Amino acid sequence: MKRSSFLQRTLGLVGASFLFSSFSSRKISVDFSAINAESSPFSLPALPYSFEALEPSIDRLTMEIHHDRHHKAYVDNLNKAVANTPMANLSLEELIVNISKYPVAVRNNGGGHWNHSFFWQLLTPSKTNPSQELQNQIIKDFGSIENFKTEFTKAATSRFGSGWAWLIFKDGKLIISSTPNQDNPLMDLADIKGNPILGLDVWEHAYYLKYQNKRADYIASFWNILNWDFVSSQFAKVNK
Ligand SMILES: [Fe+2]
Fold first, then answer.
1. Which pTM was predicted?
2. CA 148 to centroid of ligand 1, rounded, Å
3. Gap from CA of 16 to ligand 1 centroid (Å)
4. Could you report the per-residue pLDDT of 133-155, keeping only the tens digit for each?
C-alpha cells in the first residue's frame, strides 16, 4: 500500500466515527482526513472529548495545557517554519514521509502536529476492547495481551528523555518501537519504519502535573483509557 493511501485511511476514518459522539462540550467538528491533506496554514484540531473526560487517568489541567498550549505551539511553529517557502504548498503527509528533506523545525513541529492529532484519537473515557482480529495478531506476535502490554510498557518506560512508544504493523507482524522527540515511524528517517496503529506520548508534559517523575504510573493508567476501537480500526486498514 502506498504510504499516502495509508495516511489518508489512518486519520480519515476518525471524523465520521466521532461525528456521532455525544461528548458534552467538544463535539468533533474536524474531518481527520483533512489533517493529512491540509497544508499551510495548519490548524489545531478539537479534542473528541472534554478536558476532564479522561480523569482520573489524565487530569483536566494536563489535557488542557497539552492540547491548547503544547499542540497549539507545534501547529503555530510549523506554520512559521513553512511560511514563504515551497513547503507551504505541501500537505502534512507529504512533509512527514519525506521529512529528511526539510529543516529540523519542520521535523519537530510537523511531527508534533501529526503525533498529537493521532494521540487524541487513541484516548477515550469509554471502555473498549481490541477486535478479535487484533487480539489474534497480538497473541501471535507477543504470546498474550498481557505480555504485549508488558513489552510496550518497557519500550515506553525506557525511552530516554522525550519521545513516543509505538505499535506498528510491518510485513505482517506487529512490532513495538520508540522514537525520540516528535519523530514517528512514518518518517523516512525513522530507525524502524512502519504503519503506526498505537502511539503513546511519553514527554513529561503529558503526565508531569499528576504523576511527576513516575512515568511508569502514567503508562499503567494509559491502559485504562486506551481506545482499542481506534487501534483495531487502524489494524484493520493495514492488515490487508
Ligand atoms: Fe505531547
1. 0.87
2. 23
3. 24
4. 999 999 999 999 999 999 999 99
